[in-house]
């Protein structure tokens, strides 16, 4: 059975452009602690929430992110990926999916996922965690305000990373403001 957010008990808060994002910190596969408050990218921190080791679409998406990571970094965008997977599952994903050079976080609590407005699902098979977050991608400014957000209720339909690179170039050339705040 699929569980979904929002519920009456857990409404989906909006991560609204130009407003502060919720706090975000987690342990990484590399054994360090990552905290959004400590980041100082030239343009943005790109936070990619992924479903976990059980998701083949996540494997493809994060592999594409690794391939494009240097292109994002050239534009002042520092990518990071995180899921609610336990440390061993996250390490397995990082190794099996070839995620070298990408900070991969794990053990993200469901409550934190909800604060970021992610949809939450319950397991359909024994290969999935009991509950896990559906995908989301956010561009966060160095002052920790949201610039861009995309949240999915399914593993498909995520932002195309090549399109985000083009948008970063357009935005920089045209001083494009955050949208969706009317």
Care to describe what's here?
The protein has 182 residues and is an alpha+beta fold. Helix content is 27%, strand content 22%. It is built from four helices and nine strands. The relative contact order is 0.23.
In short:
The chain has 4 helices and 9 strands. The protein has 182 residues and is α+β, with helices and mostly antiparallel strands. The N and C termini lie far apart (37 Å).
Order of helices and strands: EEEHEHEHEEEEH
Structural class: alpha+beta
The level of helicity is 25-40%
N-to-C CA distance: 37 Å
User: Main β-sheet, in a few words?
Assistant: 7 strands, mixed
Strand content: 15-25%
Mean of residue pLDDT values: 92
Number of helices: 4
Radius of gyration: 16 Å
Form type: globular
Order of adjacent strands in the largest pleated sheet: 2-1-5-4-3-8-9
Q: List unreliable stretches of 5+ residues.
A: 1-6
Kindly state the number of beta strands.
9
Jot down its keywords.
single chain, 182 residues, alpha+beta, two-stranded antiparallel sheet, 22% strand
Helix and strand layout, with pairings?
Layout (H helix, E strand, L loop, with lengths): L24 E4 L4 E3 L8 E6 L6 H19 L2 E6 L4 H10 L6 E4 L3 H6 L4 E3 L8 E3 L2 E5 L5 E6 L9 H14 L8
Parallel strand pairs: 3-4, 4-5
Antiparallel strand pairs: 1-2, 1-5, 3-8, 6-7, 8-9
